[in-house]
Design goal:
Elements: H1 15-45, H2 53-118, H3 121-127, H4 131-204, H5 208-234, E1 262-264, H6 270-274, H7 276-279, E2 287-289, E3 296-298, E4 303-310, E5 322-327, E6 332-342, E7 349-350, E8 355-359, E9 370-376, E10 380-384, E11 395-399, E12 404-405
Antiparallel strand pairs: 1-2, 2-9, 3-8, 4-5, 4-7, 5-6, 6-8, 6-9, 9-12, 10-11
Length: 411
């Protein structure tokens, strides 16, 4: 497998040599993609065994292997991107040389034309032995002018292509920055995944019975916190102007993940109904996307990050785990929960489709996924919890229940 740094970009390399190396890295990426697909299939098959210690550990192990393979893909993409930038650099250098040559040729043509034009009719008649030579001199002048016009057109085309190559180079450099950041993020997530596995083994002393007790404790803590949240939200009573939000089915938001697999819908779903204690009878407040740990999560629309948090920092507080909230200009706000990594800060402006974090299994989660919530901005408040049994000091979004909107109404 090709890894970052396995190739060095030397000044003596030709465009053809670089193309071969780009093809080699792309071949390595294709092989890794097949490996990643197999890991994902294994993770999906373990979903039914998520409530067992062995299933949880195996899922973390495979997730780590998948992340490592994805990291190698990113490394290869960085190598390939560097080759592409070098290839463009060579093409830019070649075009610059050709532009210089074209300017020199145009200058010479202009000089020759000026020399021919500077001769008077009398001088031309006196200097020539025959009428044929006079006509031949005129044809030479026409030919010089035509050649100069061709060189001017060629020069304009070279300059246009040069500008295109320069813009493409800047684009490739920007993509390289994104890939470098992705590599750093995935490396951290791999370390966190290994840490999570070790924490589970230590906490359960590697026994199935202790793992069942741990799950029961986490469920009780989650239910207790949901009751506190429900009490608080029921008292908010915030007036929401229906005209302040877009019309339903307006498709103003984009999906926050590239591969859309919805594992739970909004409202009183079958799961929410069967587990009413988790939702206080009000149903699921967002939609869940089934994605493995480390999947890039993207902003559903341009907006401003108005809050981030990590409920796991307070032991026993089971909620969104690592979360992000983005406020949009159209009266909507979006929430991204159970992340493994947050890549934005409060006050940051994000664009539609920009990677703002990576999916995970933080907070109260029965398996890796993204909880995606949509709110009427008027009705949501980022609130610091006080006097909570398990979550004192934790900051999370809270809303009048009328402010919770079905995300599928806007996707």
């Amino acid at each position: 497998m090709l890894l970052l740094g396995i190739y060095s970009v030397s000044h003596g390399q030709t465009v053809d040599e670089l193309k071969i190396k780009i093809d080699n890295t792309n071949t390595a990426i294709e092989k890794l993609d097949i490996e990643i697909k197999k890991y994902q299939e294994e993770i999906d098959s373990l979903a039914k065994d998520k409530d067992s210690l062995s299933g949880a550990i195996k899922s973390l192990d495979i997730s780590k292997k998948k992340l490592e393979a994805e990291t190698k893909v990113t490394e290869n993409k960085i190598v390939s991107k560097n080759f592409e930038i070098k290839e463009l650099s060579l093409q830019i250098g070649d075009k610059n040389e050709r532009i210089v040559d074209s300017k020199r040729a145009i200058g010479q043509s202009l000089y020759n034309i000026s020399q021919m034009n500077s001769s008077s009719i009398v001088e031309i008649l006196l200097s020539k032995k025959s009428i044929a030579e006079i006509w031949n001199s005129s044809d030479q002048l026409d030919t010089l002018q035509e050649n100069m016009q061709d060189k001017i057109l060629s020069l304009a085309k070279l300059k246009t292509n040069l500008e295109k190559n320069k813009k493409l180079t800047e684009q490739k450099k920007a993509e390289l920055v994104v890939l470098t950041n992705e590599l750093k993020s995935k490396t951290k997530i791999i370390a966190d995944t290994a840490k999570e596995k070790n924490n589970i083994l230590v906490e359960t002393k590697n026994t199935e019975a202790n793992y069942k007790k741990l799950l029961a404790t986490r469920l009780a803590q989650k239910e207790a916190f949901e009751r506190e949240v429900a009490d608080f939200e029921s008292a908010l009573k915030i007036a929401i102007d229906p005209n302040s939000i877009p019309a339903t089915l307006s498709k103003v938001l984009r999906y926050p993940v590239d591969k859309v697999i919805i594992t739970q819908y909004f409202g009183n779903t079958e799961f929410a109904t069967k587990n009413s204690q988790l939702y206080n009878g009000k149903g699921h407040t967002g939609i869940d996307f089934g994605v493995s740990i480390g999947t890039p999560i993207k902003s559903a629309m341009v907006g401003t990050v108005v809050g981030t948090g990590n409920t796991d920092l307070t032991r026993g507080c089971l909620s969104y785990g690592k979360w992000i909230m983005v406020k949009h200009l159209n009266g909507l706000s979006t929430l991204y929960g159970h992340l493994s990594l947050i890549n934005v800060t409060n006050g940051q402006t994000v664009s539609t489709g920009e990677i703002i974090g990576y999916s995970g299994n933080t907070g109260y989660s029965t398996g890796p996924h993204l909880h995606f919530g949509v709110y009427a901005t008027e009705g949501v408040r980022i609130t610091k919890m006080v006097n909570s049994k398990n979550c004192t000091g934790v900051t999370i979004p809270l809303a009048d229940y009328k402010a919770y909107l079905n995300p599928l109404s806007y996707l």
